[in-house]
Amino acid sequence: MSPPEVITDPAKLRQRISAARPAGKRVALVPTMGALHAGHVSLVEAARRDCGVVITSIFVNPTQFAPGEDYERYPRNLEGDCALLGPAGCSIVFAPSVETMYPAGSETSIDVGSVARPLEGESRPTHFAGVATVVMKLFQLAPADAAYFGRKDYQQTLVVERMVRDLNVPIELAVCPIVREPDGLAMSSRNAYLSPEERCRALAIHASLRLAEQLVGRGERDAQQIREAALALLAESDITPEYVAIVREGTLEPLEVVEGPAVIAIAARVGKTRLIDNLILQ
Amino acid sequence: MSPPEVITDPAKLRQRISAARPAGKRVALVPTMGALHAGHVSLVEAARRDCGVVITSIFVNPTQFAPGEDYERYPRNLEGDCALLGPAGCSIVFAPSVETMYPAGSETSIDVGSVARPLEGESRPTHFAGVATVVMKLFQLAPADAAYFGRKDYQQTLVVERMVRDLNVPIELAVCPIVREPDGLAMSSRNAYLSPEERCRALAIHASLRLAEQLVGRGERDAQQIREAALALLAESDITPEYVAIVREGTLEPLEVVEGPAVIAIAARVGKTRLIDNLILQ
Q1: Where are the domains of chain B?
Q2: Which of A105, A147, B28, B192 lies most in the core, judged by the most C-beta atoms within 10 Å?
Q3: Which CATH number among 3.40.50.620, 1.10.357.20, 3.40.50.300, 3.90.190.20 corresponds to the domain A5-176?
Q4: Yes or no: is domain B189-280 CATH 3.40.470.10?
Q5: Quick one: closest CA in B to A129, which residue?
Q6: What is the pLDDT of residues A128-168, one digit of tens each?
Q7: Judging by beta carbons within 10 Å of its beta carbon (0-12, 13-18, 19+), is residue B1 exposed, middle or buried?
Q8: Hey, is the C-beta of A170 within 8 angstroms of any chain B C-beta?
C-alpha cells in the first residue's frame, strides 16, 4: 500500500474529509501520540474494516503531561510511524505542530467529572483534562464518523466516552482489545524506555492481572484477598505499584466484593518507567 | 410566513440539518433561553440574511443559574416565541427538555479560563462554565455553519469565542448589536420582572453608559473619573451596581487609562432584578 499523506494544516485536513463524504465513505479517526506499535496498528486495522477513510492523528499532547513527566523525551518517529500506517490501511496522517494545536492564548479545558478522579486521576491530577481537551479538539478538527481507542488506557476510554455523551459529540467510539507481546507485556510506546532487566521485571504486571483473573475464576470474591495476591506477586519482582485497583466496569467504583462486571487495573513504575495495564475480571 | 417546526428530539434535528446541506444551504443557529424579544428577533433576521436555514434553540439552561437565582421563575412562553420567530425567518425551533440535555450522569463541564473570571464571573462564579458547556452541546447537536449572539451579553460572546477558537469548533460566530427600547433600556427577558417604578429607575443604567461615552468623547481618559461619574448618576436613581467596569475590548483587562478599544460594562440590581448592559467607549 502507498504511504499515508501527512497533513499538518487543519484546513487541508477538513478538505480531505469533506471530499470523502459525498462518495459515501465513512471516516475513521485514530488519535495517537505516535511511536506506534502493534497496538496502534490493530486500531487502524479495525478502523479500516469499518470505514473507507482512516485518519491517524499523531500529536504528543503537552497538556496531558505534568511538569517532570516524560513529555520531552517521549519517543517521536514520524517516518517509522508512516511505514507502519500505510500497510495497515491508513491513508491520512494528521500531524499538527504544538503551535497549531495550542496557539498563544489557548486556555479552554474540559473536565469530565468523577470518572477522571480515581486511579490515573489521582496519580496524574491534570492528565485527563489534557486528554479530554485534546481529544475534543481532534474531534472538531477531524469530524470523523468513528474514533478508535485502545483498551490499555482503560480509564481514558471512559473519560472520552463520558465527554462524547455529555457534550453530544456526533461520533461513534470503538474500544479495541489490548495487544500484548508474546510474553504478555502490554504494548506501550513507553516500553522503549525499559532496560532488558526492567523489561523482564515488568512481566510481573501482567502476571498479577492473570493471577487475579485465576482467583476470580476459582470463586474468590474478596477484592482485598485478590489485591494482596497481586501485590505479593509484584513484590517478588521488586515492584511497588502506584495502585492495584479492583473496580466496577464503566464507573470505576472500588469494589470490596467482586460482583458484576469488574476490572483490575495496575499502575507501576519499573525503574523510572511508569506502566499501566488492566484486565476484565468478569 | 409559516410558523417554525418545533423539534425536541436531537436525532430529528440532525436529520433536518443533514437534509439542508446537499441543497447548498448555509445553516444558522441562534441559541436562546426563549422569552424572546426584539433583540432575539434581530439575531434571527441577521441569521436569515446570511443563511438558508435558521434554527433557534430555546432552552432555559439550568447549569448557568446558581442556586437562589431565577431559574424556576425565568419566563417561558414557547407559543409566543414561535409567533415571533416565523415572521423573522426561523423555520426550526429546537426546544429540548432538561432530561434530553442533561440525562442522569452528565458531569462534563468546560472552563474557558481568564475571560470568564472577572465581571459576571465574579458575581456568578459557576455561570460561564454552564454557558460554555451548553453552547458546546448545542453546537454539536445542531452543527450549523454560523451562530448568532447578542452583544448585550458581551462577556458571554467573548467566552463563546474563546471556546470556539480553543476547541477548534467549525462554526462562524456573529455578534449582533444591542437592541434597546426607545428610551434606551437594553432589551432583556428579565425586563418583564420590573415594576413600573423599577422600569423607570433602570433607565439610569443606559444613561450612565451614555454619560461615560460622552466624557470619553470630550477627551476624558481617566477611567476612575469616568466610573465615578457613572456611579453618581446611578446613585441618583438609587442604584448601587455590582460593578461598573471599564475594560479592554476582547480581553476584559481593567483599564486605568482609556486607550485603544474599550468597553464600559455595568451589572446592577433594580429591586430584585439583575440587569446588565454595556457600551463600546471607543
Answers
A1: 5-176, 189-280
A2: B28
A3: 3.40.50.620
A4: no
A5: B110
A6: 999 999 999 999 999 999 999 999 999 999 999 999 999 99
A7: exposed
A8: yes
Confidence of residue B1 (pLDDT cuts 50, 70, 90): low
What does DSSP assign to residue B222?
Answer: B
Catalytic (active site) residue A206: no
Sheet arrangement for strand B53-58: B5-7, B92-94, B53-58, B27-32, B146-150, B172-176
Å between A131 CA and nearest CA of chain B: 13
Find the range with the poorest average confidence among A12-26, A44-58, A77-91, A143-157.
A12-26
In the block, which residue shows the cell 496498528?
Answer: A41
Question: Measured between beta carbons, which residues in chain B are less than 8 angstroms from residue A166?
Answer: 106-108, 137
Neighbours of B43 (CB within 10 A): 26
Among residues A27, A40, A43, A201, the one annotated as catalytic is A40
Please report the beta strands in chain B, taking only residues with DSSP state E, as ranges in sequence order: 5-7, 27-32, 53-58, 92-94, 109-111, 146-150, 172-176, 241-248, 262-270, 273-280
CA distance B266 to B268: 6
Name which of B160, B152, B204, B156 is nearest B178 in CA terms. B152
Q: Is B235 in CB contact (< 8 Å) with chain A? A: no
Does B132 contact A at CB distance below 8 Å? yes
Q: What is the pLDDT of residues A248-269, one digit of tens each?
A: 999 999 999 999 999 999 999 9
